[in-house]
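Structure first, sequence second, as always.
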């Protein structure tokens, strides 16, 4: 097995041959002070080609919200001159996006030797798939690899079940990598599984946890999109399925669930980064997850959907400002989870319902599973708050995962104490 892993790993070079380069492309940050400035950004988006990092859509733009967008090199000069003419405050958070993409990888040669087995590195899908197979073979009593379907491009999807197969009764889902460019999310799922299985029978807390809870880990939900971010476009978000009658590719999987589907925004525009698909569960990846959840719903108690960036821990609903029935409890758990998270490095998270903490989101996984009966459902936006955004350097994987682990353990310990 080791040989197989090494072969797969050795086949991958450290320098990634991106077809799409971002030389001299810039990322701007603006906090519009009033409606005029909001309208001006919307106008900019019609005369130049902007890729919004946060919020993800023009429809979410309101005064005083932080807006990060990426512009190509030619448009950047125009944007700077227009912003200066209008006297709108702005910052350029990346002067040269290509450089930031390359700097994401730790270049310390010393650390590269066994980098592919390290959890504090970013990994390609092939590496993650080989790793998942490897842990299921090496830890058969604790880990099983359950096939759940295929992606649009035919890649097999799996859930890694991690827990004591005999005693663990309550289930918690960790869903990572719905959005392709949010690499820290799959990195966390790998970290979690690795640390959990190594700590079993050594660390009392983790042993208790895995004896009671079965973790259902989806290391990468949007596999095709993730592969695309490694091979073609680092900034890709959606999956890779084509849309009828459009040259634009991809559906936002976290808008494709059957909950208030298509109720808001950019709904008919397949070129939008938040295109919800041609129908609820239209995507093979979404269908694979929803049928797995439906099959296991009676044992599932909590669902965690991990994203980046923004440092937020949120609970339903996203599609409405209506409060869920157990809102008080959710607020209490979120509050103690962010407190636990901050203990290690002082990292501050905000928390609350999705709709009021970030913005209205329809068709998301956490809202859908909540209404299916998984009443402790959370969306987590990991580090950071935009210094590196989607390009969090590898040296932040370990601290990010260590602190996030504390929040997950806090939520899990609540689940253990649930009566049924
Ligand atoms: Zn996301």
């Amino acid at each position: 097995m080791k040989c197989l892993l090494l072969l797969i790993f050795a086949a991958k070079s450290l320098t990634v041959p991106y077809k799409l380069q971002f030389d001299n492309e810039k990322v701007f940050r603006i906090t519009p002070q009033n409606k005029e400035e909001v309208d001006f950004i919307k106008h900019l988006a019609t005369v130049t080609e902007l890729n919004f990092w946060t919020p993800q859509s023009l429809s979410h733009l309101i005064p005083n919200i932080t807006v990060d967008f990426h512009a190509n090199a030619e448009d950047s000069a125009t944007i700077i001159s227009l912003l200066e003419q209008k006297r709108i405050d702005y910052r350029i958070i990346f002067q040269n996006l290509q450089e930031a993409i390359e700097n994401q990888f730790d270049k310390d040669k010393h650390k590269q030797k066994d980098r592919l087995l390290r959890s504090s590195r970013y990994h390609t899908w092939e590496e993650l798939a080989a790793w998942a197979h490897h842990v299921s073979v090496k830890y058969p009593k604790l880990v099983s690899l359950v096939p759940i379907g295929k992606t649009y491009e035919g890649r097999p999807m799996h859930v890694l079940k991690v827990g004591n197969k005999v005693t663990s009764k309550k289930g918690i889902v960790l869903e990572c990598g719905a959005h392709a460019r949010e690499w820290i999310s799959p990195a966390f799922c790998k970290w979690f599984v690795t640390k959990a299985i190594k700590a079993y029978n050594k660390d009392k807390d983790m042993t208790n946890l895995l004896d009671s809870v079965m973790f259902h880990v989806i290391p990468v939900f949007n596999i095709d999109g993730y592969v695309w971010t490694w091979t073609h476009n680092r900034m890709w978000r959606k999956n890779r399925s084509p849309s009828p009658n459009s040259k634009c590719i991809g559906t936002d999987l976290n808008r494709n669930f059957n909950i208030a589907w298509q109720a808001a925004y950019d709904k008919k525009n397949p070129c939008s980064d938040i295109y919800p698909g041609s129908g609820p569960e239209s995507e093979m990846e979404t269908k694979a997850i929803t049928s797995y959840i439906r099959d296991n719903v009676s044992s599932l108690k909590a669902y965690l959907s991990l994203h980046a960036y923004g440092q937020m821990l949120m609970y339903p609903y996203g599609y409405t400002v209506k409060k869920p029935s157990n809102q008080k409890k959710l607020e209490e758990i979120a509050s103690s989870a962010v407190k636990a998270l901050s203990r290690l490095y002082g990292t501050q998270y905000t928390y609350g319902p999705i709709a009021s903490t970030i913005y209205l989101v329809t068709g998301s996984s956490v809202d859908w599973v909540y209404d299916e009966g998984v009443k402790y459902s959370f969306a987590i936006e990991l580090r950071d708050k935009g210094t590196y955004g989607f390009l969090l350097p590898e040296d932040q994987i370990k601290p990010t995962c260590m602190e996030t682990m504390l929040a997950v353990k806090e939520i899990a310990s609540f689940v253990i104490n649930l009566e049924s």
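Margin note: The first helix runs from residue 2 to 10.
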